[in-house]
Every structure is written in structure tokens, then in C-alpha cells.
Amino acid sequence: MANRKTKILAIDDNQDNLITLNALIKEAFPEAVILAALNGKRGLELAASEDPDVILLDIVMPDMDGFDVCKKLKADPNLRDTPVVFVTALKGDKQSRILALEVGADAFLAKPIDESELTAQIRAMVKIKTAHIERRDEKERLAALVEEKTSELKRSYIATINLMEDLKRENEARQKSDEALQASEARYRRITEGLTDYQYTVRIEKGCAVETKHSPACVVITGYTAEEFAADAFLWLRMVAPEDRELIIERARHIMEGEDIPPIEHRIIRKDGELRWVTDNIILYKSDSGDLMYYDGVVKDITERKKAEVEKHKLEEQLRQSHKMEAIGTLAGGVAHDFNNILTAIIGFGTMAKRRLKGEESIGEYIGEMLAAANRAAELTHALLAFSRKQTIALKPENLNDIVYNVEKMLRRVIGEEIEFKTKLAHDDIPVMVDRGQIDQVLLNLATNARDAMPDGGVLSVETDIVDIDGSYPEAHLFENKGPHAVLTVSDTGYGMDQNTRGNIFEPFFTTKEVGKGTGLGLAVVYGIVKQHGGNISVYSEPGKGTTFRIYLPLANASVYDSLRTALPLPLGKGETILVAEDDNKVRKIIMMSLEGHGYKGIESEDGDTAVKRFIENNDSVSLLLLDVIMPSKNGRDAYEEIKRIRPDIKAIFMSGYTDDIIAKKGVLQDSVDFIAKPIDPDALLRKIRTVLDR
Ligand code: ADP
Ligand code: MG
Q1: CATH 3.40.50.2300-classified regions of the chain
Q2: Atom of ligand 1 nearest to the CA of 517
Q3: Could you write out the three-class secondary structure of 81-112?
Q4: What angle do CA 429, 435, 437 make, to 5 degrees?
């Protein structure tokens, strides 16, 4: 304000008044800038452009009077603070003063203007204006400060936010790396936990082992701690499985002689008695003079690998075996078949020749011998055919327990009195679909071999049982179809077999018996029969430890087993679907069971409406309708008619407690339909179904 010249604006329509004012002001404020306006409009313009310190305003002016000008000035935010001094001619005009105050007048000067009053007023007004300006400046400064602080705050806020975001990102990254770290730690832990290898060092002095140190991990593989190894100089050798000790001692000798040896694979018996396979990888350290100073061994548990190898070997062996058997079977079957025809001719003509011989005793005897030999040959070919599975077998429902029970007497005769015969049969019936004579043959062949294996007596035992073959069953790999099986176990306490024999026993003509004692066909036949029944056979045997054969046969469906057993061979379904409509629950269940037990699929419905509904649901698959004639909601004929509209050629069999005749008379059925009378004989029903389906 100090270096600002005081600016005074005078607004008056009277030129003379302005001149007077100018003179007066100049007198009092020689430095002041004096602006003059001859009307209100010009005055407002100057006020806006010059920002005066004081405005001297005349009241009475044409166009725009002083009140209007003041109102406008006070309405302008830039000029609101500029003091307005009304210059009035009317000294005591109270009305004008009030009006002037209302529009914002700051002070009054009466005309004629007194110089000292003018000076005082202007000074006062300038002070006000200065104060205003100062206040405004202060306000602006404050505003600027606030602005500055705000933007500073804003900046720091943004910086904070950025920082926070950075932190967040960093945190996330850290978290991720934490996770990665944790994962890698876990992995490392797993690896180290899995790392069961251990290491040992043997110090040698003058060709003798003087100190052995095991790494702590030895306890994982062996069950023995490093301290136990340190305390017992021969623990390492005692731990080796007896079968491998010789090998280890031999290797130890090589080591002591300073020879490098390849890794040794051997078995150990853990402290808890478990057998494990390990490899021991040995590195020798020698002095400059070539003396062995110490050696390191790294021991690794390879049990799982060994198991897998054995398993793989077993599977390969089985595959090879089954291929071989297949090939031999085909060959044997082909030869046997032709040979059988030749034998038929030999036996046929031989028999005729013998019949025609009259009185030629000796020739008759010769022919008799020839025929006997031919019959033996026929038996052989029969056996070969059985092995090659070319022989037809007739499967019937049988109880495996019965078979064993009935053949017992014959078996006892075969094995003689030196050998004890034991049976252990399952409590429940064991329903199987088998050719009984063939199973007898299997038992006979196995018993014969058992007898031969126990020349000094022993025990032959035959057991029956049912086992559920699932993935965990020890011999599960043998089975194409898992699930419950009948198992027939035949074991003896004889001399057993070595691995080589075991690998060949099912081959035709493989025998270890002296000429004339064995044909080598017994087990080949057993194998053929078992395979032909869809079964499996396994053998366990060790020299001197007896032999156990296990024969698995598919189990027959127990629910239909009983009804089947008493029946003649029944024509079976080929998976056809039959829609059954019958309102009597019991009858319907029996029919369903019988259908499902004989190769059909059944769809149940308890009345005519449901039958139609089920047919629509299963339209494509249904081959035959089995309809009760009298049913609630819709009788059998109506259901049939409705279904016929969907499929005109649908086959149907009607069932009813009424006789054929009565129903026909009632007009329920046309005489051309197939009909079966109640009570329904399941076998008759099955036969009828087959006939209708095959028509
Ligand atoms: P064969 O009895 O005429 O020798 P097999 O096919 O019945 O022919 O048996 C083949 C071989 O399997 C026998 O020679 C014998 O070496 C071995 N073998 C079969 N069963 C037993 C058993 N229970 N104990 C020991 N060895 C057996
Ligand atoms: Mg035999």
C-alpha cells in the first residue's frame, strides 16, 4: 500500500463539481491519482478498470443515479470493498441517507464540501480500503497458502497412495515369493524326507577296519541308529539277509584288497524284521603308496524298484506263457482233431474186423490189443482237445461243494492210504456254471500229481471258497473280470517244484517223471478246462515245501441259481429288453428275476398305463412285451393296442390266470396272439420268450 498511489474516483454529472472536487483533493493529497466520471456508467467502468481506493458518488444523476451505481458497485465482488462516499447536496435529507446506507454507502459528504471534512473522510476511507485490501491480500495469501498446503497435501497424499500401492505390490510380491519359498521349502523337505540314502565311512589301518561311521539317515533304511552301528562292529553284516551274506563277504574281501567293485544290490533285514533291497555304492580312498586308507559307501533303498521289476517280470512271463499256450493249444487242437478222425476209422474198422473174425483166436487178440492202444490214443487226443479248448463242454449250474463232495471217494482211491485226504468246504453253496465231468477231471489230475509228489505219504487237501477279486487281490492281475469268484484250492505237502519246473508245468508233454510214468498232459488239460470255463489257475510251490494250486471260476448269479439247477438247459437271452406289465408285485418280481438271470433285461410296470409310458421311454430298446391281461388303469390288450400304434411290429406275450379259451371268448384277445397261462412256470416262460423272439 505504501508504494501505491491513492486513487480516488469521483462520479458526478456536474463538470464544475468535478473540477472543484479535483482541486480540493489535489490540495489535500498531492500524490493522489484522481479519476473522474460524468455519469454512472462511466463511473462503473472506471471503477472496474482502475480499482480506486475511494469512490465519491453524487446522488442525483441522469440515467443512473448514485443509489443505482452504489448498488452495482456493492454487487461486484471486486469492488464490494471499495468505500463509497455519497456527496449530497441536501444536508438534512434523512430519507436519502437511509436509502444510501441501504444500498451500501460507507460515508457521506455534504455540499458544499468542506475541505477538512473531505480530507478526513478520504483518509478514513483509504484506511478502510487499505484494511480491506490488506485483509483481501491476507485472505489471498491465506488462500494461496491453503492452496499450496492443499496441493502439498495432495501431492503427499498421492505420494502416500503410490507408496502404499508400491508397498502393496511389494507385499504381494513378497507374499508370492514367500509362497514360492514355502513351496520350495516343502519340496526340499519332501526331498530330504524322501532322501533315505545314507552314507558310511570305514577307516582302514594296516588292512583292518578300525572305525566305521554311519550318517544319521541310516536309521530310516535299516532301523538301526548310527550309534548302534558304531557300538557293534558286525551289525552291518548281520543285517544282510542270510542269502546274500556270502556275496557281501566276498565283496568285502575285494575291497580290502583295494579293488574297485561295482555297486552291490543285496537284501537286508531291518531292525523290525522287514526285508528291504538296497544298493551299496563303494568308493575307495588310497594313500600315495596305494594302501587303502578308508572307503565310503552310499546305501540306497531300492525295494520299490525291485518289487516293480519282479512284478513286471511276472507279467511278462505270464504274457509269454499265455501266448505260448495259445499257440500250442492251436497246434495240439488241430492235430488232435484230425488224429481223432483217423482213430475213429482205426477203431471202427478194427471193431468190425474183430467182429467178423470167427475162430481166429490169436488174430482176435492182436486186434484187441490194437484196439486197446487206439482207445488209449483216443483218450490222449481227448485230453489234447480239452487242453486246446476245442472240445465242447456243456455248462450247467452246479454247487462246487457238491462236486468236491461227490468226487471225494474216487480221489481217495487214487491217492491211496499213505496220503491223508482233507476237505474244507465253504459253508454256503458255491454256485458255478460248469461242466461237471470236466471239473472232476481237473480234481483227478491234480490229485494224481499230488500223489506222485508224496511218495512217502503226506496230506492232500481240497478247499472251496468264494473270494471277491478286486484291485488289491494278490492275484488280481490274472483276471480280466473282477468281482466274486469261486475258488478251488488243491494243496499237497509233497516235494514241490523249482522255478524252472513251475514255469513249464502247463505245457503239454512237459513232464519230470520217468518214461511210462507221466504223459505231461495232466496239467495241460487242467489249464485248458479252467480257461474254457472262463477261469484262472495259479500255482505256488517251492522245492520241499509242497504245492498249492488255486482255480478260480466265475460265480453264477445266486438268485437264479436255484431255479436253474433243477432245470434242463434253458434257451438264454441275448441281452434283449423285455417290458413286463403285471400288477401282482410278487409275480412281477419273479418274472423280472428270471428274465435277468437268463440274459434278458427287464423293464417293470405295474399297470397298463405305466407300461405304455415305459415303452415310450425305452422305445428303441424294447424287443418284446410281456403283458398281464387283466390289470388296473388299462388292461393288457389296450396297452398292447396303444403300443402297437407306436411300433406296429412289436412282439407280445400275454399272461393270464384265465384259460386261453375264456379270454378268447371274452374277446379280450384275438386268437393269433401268444399266450401263457398262470401260474407261470419260469422255464416255460423262458422257452416261450425265446420262441417268440426267434420267430
Ligand atoms: P505228468 O504228471 O504226466 O508229468 P502233468 O502235466 O500232470 O504231467 O505235470 C507236469 C509236471 O508238473 C510233473 O511232471 C511234475 O514235475 C510237475 N508237477 C505237477 N504237479 C505237481 C505237484 N503237485 N508237486 C510237484 N510237482 C508237480
Ligand atoms: Mg500228471
Answers
A1: 7-187, 314-365+568-695
A2: 3
A3: CCCEEEEECCCCCHHHHHHHHHCCCCEEEECC
A4: 100
- Burial per residue of 60-90, b for 16 or more beta-carbon CB atoms within 10 angstroms, e otherwise: ebeebbbbebbebbbeeeebebbbbbbbbee
The answer to whether 541 and 497 are in contact (CB under 8 A) is yes
Helices and strands (H, E) in the chain, number of each type: 21, 22
| Cα angle, residue 122 at apex, residues 114 and 8 outer, rounded to 5° | 110
Range with the largest mean pLDDT of 195-199, 270-274, 379-383, 404-408: 270-274
Look at residues 355, 343, 433, 346 and name the one whose alpha carbon lies nearest to residue 397.
433
Distance from residue 520's CA to the centre of ligand 2 (Å)? 6
Instruction: Tell me the three cell numbers of residue 95.
Output: 430519507
> Residue 115 in 3-state DSSP?
helix
SS3 call for 353? helix
Give residue 137's pLDDT.
Answer: 77
How many Å apart are CA 261 and CA 292, to the nearest integer? 14
Class at the top of the CATH hierarchy for domain 7-187: alpha beta
Region(s) of the chain under CATH 3.30.565.10: 396-562
Q: Give the CA radius of gyration of the chain.
A: 60
Does a cis peptide bond (omega within 30 degrees of 0) precede residue 648?
no
Q: Find out whether 594 and 682 touch, Cβ atoms under 8 Å.
A: yes
Integer CA distances (angstroms), 196 to 187, 220, 222, 453, 606, in order: 15, 6, 10, 46, 67
Q: Whose alpha carbon is nearest atom 7 of ligand 1?
A: 522
Ligand 1 surroundings by CB, under 6 angstroms:
445, 449-450, 453, 492, 494, 496-497, 501, 505, 510-513, 518-524, 547
The Cβ of residue 503 has, within 10 Å, a number of other Cβ atoms equal to 15
**Domain 195-301 carries which CATH code?**
3.30.450.20
- Which grid cell is 88? 449530497
What are the pLDDT digits (tens) for 478-488?
787 888 899 99
> CATH class for domain 314-365+568-695?
alpha beta
Is the Cα dihedral 93, 98, 99, 105 positive or negative?
positive
DSSP per position, 360-398: -HHHHHHHHHHHHHHHHHHHHHHHHHHHHT-S----EEE
Condensed to tens digits (0 to 9), the pLDDT of residues 311-352 reads 888 877 777 777 777 777 777 777 777 777 777 778 878 888
Q: Name every residue whose Cβ is closer than 8 Å to that of residue 543 and which is 6 or more positions away in sequence.
A: 495, 496, 497, 498
pLDDT at 567 over 70: no
Angle between helices 636-646 and 608-617 (to 10 degrees): 20
Full-prediction pTM beyond 0.70? no
Query: Which residues 6+ apart lie within 8 Å of 291 measured at CB?
Result: 204, 258
pLDDT at 41 over 60: yes
Residue 379 grid coordinates: 483218450
Side-chain-side CA neighbours of 442 within 13 Å: the count stands at 31
Asked if the 396-562 domain carries CATH number 3.30.565.10, the reply is: yes
Ligand at shortest distance from the CA of 519: 1
CA of 344 to the centre of ligand 1 (A): 30
Which residue owns the Cα nearest ligand 1 atom 13?
A: 511
Nearest 5°: phi and psi at 542? -135, 150
